[in-house]
Design a protein that fits this description.
By secondary structure, the protein is an alpha/beta fold. 46% of the residues lie in helices and 14% in strands. It has two domains: 186 residues, Periplasmic binding protein-like II (D-Maltodextrin-Binding Protein, domain 2, 3-Layer(aba) Sandwich), CATH 3.40.190.10; 198 residues, Periplasmic binding protein-like II (D-Maltodextrin-Binding Protein, domain 2, 3-Layer(aba) Sandwich), CATH 3.40.190. Strand 4 and strand 5 form a beta hairpin. Helix 9 packs across helix 10 and helix 17 runs antiparallel to helix 18. The chain is globular and about 70 Å long. It is found in: Periplasm.
Length: 428
């Protein structure tokens, strides 16, 4: 009897200790994420987070939808400066230098201790890692990544006497196709534009498609030097301006990013440049058969990468950093990456995700999903520098001045380069 009582007491104490240990091991994480395109992104990321939490009850993840990319970096920096940062966040890959300068994030290299972890760090497409590493260290993990692609209305192509299966392959063809696709009524008013390249929000990104195709890079890898006044950059901006001012295949003035898919659905434009992150949105809402292709080439093919990376924040406990690391490994694993791509159209950021049964079935049913992945062969890093928001604002303002006819492209870019040099001189 005494033995039974002793055993019962001992077992009860052990259970209490186990319960206490479990409580002590519980980790709370706050996770900021943005959604910049239409579709199922917010619902999907919440579902993935819930799935992980259900399988890992000792990790509590508060997934906070922080708005647009701009909203997310603003809220994150405010939280960092106030001493209450999230433990992890998806933020634009180009904000890496800003986060480093704020001393807000840590490199992943120190958390990747095992051979498997180190192999995981090298499992992503090199084109996406260009905006994720600096100084030999990995600060961001690709997740919500994209490239711009060309969408076209196959019915509009047929009506214009163009092959509906063949998009323009060059700058010259883009103009020629655009002229055939631009429709006017009896009074000469345009009822359908040939093409649409958005120039609001973050116009530098789509403009970087043109500069890459013209074989020029806008900034160096160190993030402290821009090339805005390079003659090839000027030539690219002149081409963009001429699409409206000279060739009349694109509406004049600033073209809104957010309304571009709707304009495409409603037949206001026969072609558009936008992110592959809009792929699911277009698939769900286009009332006609459409195509997806790589951006047209000039001196070469090319497009910038884009989208968001995962970051882990410095002002976290060791347990929170380790838990964040494990969650990021899980959500970027092939099965989860496939779910994310299928739901949103973002590019699965590692090759093995494309080998999963779900992804193979997806691309068999919907081959356009492969376009952005295949375009990575020609992709370059999105414009990213120290003081990145100031630098991109300077370039965006120059683009707007040229597009609206306030300044000639060469003058606008020369002024932008001078201002960027003034800001970045201290980082060289």
């Amino acid at each position: 009897m005494t033995l039974m009582k002793t055993m019962t007491t001992t077992l009860g104490a052990a259970a209490l200790l186990a319960s206490t240990a479990t409580t002590a091991l519980a980790v709370d994480l706050q996770f900021f994420f943005p959604v910049a395109v239409g579709g199922k992104a917010a619902d999907t990321i919440q579902a993935l987070t819930d799935e992980y939490a259900a399988a890992n009850p000792d990790v509590k993840i508060d997934a906070v939808y922080a708005g647009s990319y701009q909203d997310t970096i603003t809220k994150t920096l405010t939280a960092v400066r106030g001493g209450t940062p999230p433990q992890l966040s998806v933020i634009l890959s180009v904000d890496m230098f800003t986060l480093i300068e704020e001393d807000a994030i840590i490199p992943f290299d120190g958390l990747a201790k095992s051979d498997a972890d180190k192999a995981w760090l090298t499992s992503f497409y090199p084109a996406f890692m260009d905006n994720s590493m600096t100084g030999g260290k990995t600060y961001g993990i690709p997740f919500q990544r994209s490239t711009p692609v060309l969408y076209w209305n196959k019915e509009a192509f047929k009506e214009a006497g163009l092959d509906p299966e063949t998009p323009p392959a060059t700058w010259e063809e883009q103009i020629a196709f655009g002229k055939k696709l631009t429709k006017r009524d009896a009074n000469g008013n345009v009822t359908q534009w040939g093409m649409r390249i958005p120039s609001s929000g973050f116009p530098y990104w789509l403009f970087q498609g043109l500069t890459t195709q013209n074989d020029v890079i806008l900034a160096n890898d160190a993030g402290n030097k821009t090339n805005f006044d390079d003659p090839k950059v000027v030539e690219a901006l002149q081409y963009l301006v001429d699409l409206s001012a000279k060739h009349e295949v694109m509406q004049p003035g600033i073209i809104e990013w957010g309304s571009t898919p709707k304009a495409f659905f409603e037949g206001q434009t026969a072609m558009m440049w936008t992110t592959t992150g809009n792929l699911t949105n277009v698939r769900d809402n286009a009332p006609f058969d459409f195509g997806v292709g790589m951006l047209p080439a000039n001196k070469r093919r090319g497009a910038p990468t884009g989208g968001g990376n995962f970051y882990i924040f410095k002002d976290s406990t060791d347990e929170q950093k380790a838990a964040s690391f494990e969650f990021i490994k899980w959500i970027t694993a092939p099965e989860q990456a496939a779910k994310w791509t299928i739901a949103t159209g973002y590019v699965a950021p590692r090759p093995d995700a494309w080998e999963t049964p779900a992804m193979k079935q997806y691309v068999a049913d919907f081959p356009p999903a492969l376009v952005a992945r295949d375009q990575l062969e020609y992709a370059v890093a999105e414009l990213s520098t120290y003081q990145n928001q100031r630098i991109t604002t300077i370039l965006n303002d120059a683009l707007e001045a040229a597009i609206t006819g306030q300044k000639a492209p060469a003058a606008a870019l020369e002024e932008a380069q001078a201002e960027a040099d003034r800001i970045l001189a201290d980082y060289r």
